[in-house]
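Next up, a specimen:

>
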Amino acid sequence: MSWLHQLEDFLCTKLEGWFRKKFPDPVGPVDLAKSLWKQMRKQRFRSIKKVYVPNYYLIRLHPDDLEQLVSIQKALTKELAEYLEQKAAERRLSLVGPVQVHLDWDRELSPGQVTVVGRMQEKHGREEKKEHDLGQTLVYQGPLSREDGMVFRQWQLEVVAGPDVGKVYQLQAGCNVIGRQPGIEISLTDPRVSRQHAWVEVMGEQILVTDLDSTNGTLVNEERIQTKLVGSGARLEVGDTVLLLKEVVN
């Protein structure tokens, strides 16, 4: 990104923030589209011949702002996804899968405030859809037996410190969400953990941990991270909770 574009983004962010504080109007579809497009550009990844951008986006809003959009949420997220696909095509940006946009609320945000996190999520074989209360996530179902010589690897997160100490969570293939939100894969009671704090993605023999712009951040082996590949024995810290990653080979 050129310095002129960086300056433009900086000034737009400052001006929007100033106007939001002075005139806190409800967040509308245009605000969401602008935030998504900005995040897509921010997370560009240049490969050998292509420039990749995220295809999975999570938008967080203040509960009052989200309430204004609930009646059109399904149609709106579809329209926003189509908008991003169009922008990517116009700028010749590559996507690793169809664009998905989800909305969620966060009481820690102020009215009018919008946060967006994006990630690249490839489509795998043998997919199925799993519904959360915030939307749908594509989940890859890996090998379930030793057929054809395949070994089934199971991953676990054990809480070794914090309010939920002693609990063990079985990770499923695909994306697992850590947070305080009821019904997600790793639901914690720690008040210093955000409702959706981090993603833990199982990709065969690899585990990818991604912080979801949480209030208190995510640490892996005492290092604050945004996205990091980890292995068995890694210690994840979210809020006052420490989780130990374990691999179980059957």
Q: What stands out?
A: The chain has two domains: 24-119, 154-248. Confidence is low (pLDDT under 50) at residues 124-151. The radius of gyration is 19 Å. The CA atoms of residues 20 and 112 lie 6 Å apart.
